[in-house]
Amino acid sequence: MVNIIALIPARSSSKGIPNKNIMSFKGKPLLAHSINYAKKCKFVSDIIVTTDSKEYCAIANAFGARTPFLRPNELSGDEVQDFPVVEHALKFLENEKNNEIDFIALLRPTSPLRPKNLIEKAYDLIEDNKLGTSVRTVVPSKEHPFRQFKVKNGIMVSYSQEVKESYNIPRQKLPNAFFQSGDLEFIRRSTILEGSISGNYIIPLFLNQEELFDIDLPKDLKF
Questions:
Q1: Model-level pTM?
Q2: Computed over its alpha carbons, how large is the radius of gyration of the chain?
Q3: I need a surface site. Which of 6, 25, 143, 154 has the fewest CB within 10 A?
Q4: Residue among 44, 40, 60, 43 nearest 52 (CA)
């Protein structure tokens, strides 16, 4: 049987909203929504919250997740990327139970209103494509990358170098572009062991723009 771990990253420090991951949303702490979402997936073998806070551990446990470790200090800062956090969890859990994990389903607490069955859909996609290293939820970009600029030596330069004056292309002729949402990243074990949480063959799981709800700032929570 496939061994899928739902991993919910929830460090205690947050700049946009203090203690964002346990803020009340629809009557529950924010991270509880991701725990409850994982509970509904029959493929999920274990639900783990990786945090640096004993308070967060207690809240996660109350809603049915496990917190078998506290995240080390070196994995708790603002600039820590996702890979070392996921790698740490994978190695700890495999050592804990002496059992190989097949996939990590990364569920960020900041996306509490996920569409149904994303984990199941991601599993089906990657099982149908053995070359796939991971699956990510994406939505059509509101702001097209061809319309983006950087300023270099006081001059505006297009971010895209593949097309001359890409910023002047009519909107109707712009190629499709997508933005990753925080709803789900579904990652093969081998991808993590090779030093990445994406790999070089990322399979898209398409969502509609209307399905994108990401909470990062107080105005997002209010909305």
A1: 0.91
A2: 19
A3: 154
A4: 60
